[in-house]
TrEMBL record:
Top-level taxon: Bacteria
Protein function: Transfers a succinyl group from succinyl-CoA to L-homoserine, forming succinyl-L-homoserine.
Main location as per UniProt: cytoplasm
Annotated GO CC locations: cytoplasm
Annotated residues for binding of substrate: 224, 353
The protein's name in its UniProt record: Homoserine O-succinyltransferase
Protein family: Belongs to the AB hydrolase superfamily. MetX family.
Top EC class for this record: transferase
Catalysis: reaction(s): L-homoserine + succinyl-CoA = O-succinyl-L-homoserine + CoA
Amino acid sequence: MTVANSVGIVTAQKAVFDQPITLSSGAALPRYELMYETYGTLNANASNAILICHALSGHHHVAGKYAETDKAAGWWDNMVGPGKPIDTDRFFVIGLNNLGGCHGSTGPSSINPETGKPYGSTFPLVLVRDWVETQARLADRLGIKQFAAVIGGSLGGMQAMRWAISHPERVRHCLVIASAPKLTAQNIAFNDVARQAILTDPEFHGGDYYEHGVVPKRGLRLARMLGHITYLSDDGMGEKFGRELKSGEYKYGFDVEFQIESYLRYQGDKFSGMFDANTYLLMTKALDYFDPGRHFGGDLVAALKTTLAKFLVVSFTSDWRFSPARSREIVKALLDARRPVSYAEIESAHGHDAFLMDDEPYFGVMRAYLNNIAKEIAA
């Protein structure tokens, strides 16, 4: 039985790449695997494919469920499905777990074929441009020469931009949501504090904790708690939790007293039980390193002049981690590069997490833009 407006029961697939890949760092992997899912049907000329690029803690399970008994659907199930803004009745949608991930794609917790042990500390750093190259290889495997759209929020939006720059002829539309042209010093600082929480955890063992049969849960828990604060807005936290006490009165101690403390600790505990600490380190470093203008003399305009795609850039008013001002930098650079771009700034109290939320104006913008893409395909 399929849930209304859902892609229904889905199955993850694994693509094995036996040809080596040389990464931006100069390190090479002799082979690697990517986990991915697809929704909808690829049309005869493969012109209706959409790639969804995930954010820091995302993965390939974008929509649907693996079993009827699953409590939760994919991380963007509200956006992707029949009749939804990214309509699987019209588009062939691909979600994948990036290289270095911890949900089935080759990453630090995978077995290194040369040693028979988990890669651990020996797994190389991976940049956004490296992800794009592996995604392009997957597209080749699936017979897709050009995407109707590449879409991503946050770190996913950075991947969408990199796609348009690295493979201009392969992207017709680039949708960059709640993202930035590069991180500010403050954002890099947040990432470093999160990494230090993991790196200084006694159970980290230099990244080789797998061999010790332990997990640096305390560090990962703190990293997630810090990150989660930055994904929410002050108004949103105030409205949801305020200064509400769990017991209604002060306990005069250091245990959980405020509801916001309880919420953050729950999120930290949940995340530390399902995510890999080494992957968290890799993902945050990829964020830090992202700078598409770097190879163009620091000029973002010059980088974007290489693109051929049409752009939609979306930001949210209460997002202070990737503020609307950062999205407007992308828009201005695109205009200066004389590239076609549409921009929407959505009123929202959800902070950075707004790109994942049900929001009528946001969904309206996405639906309208994607309707136009569908019309292009049908023309």
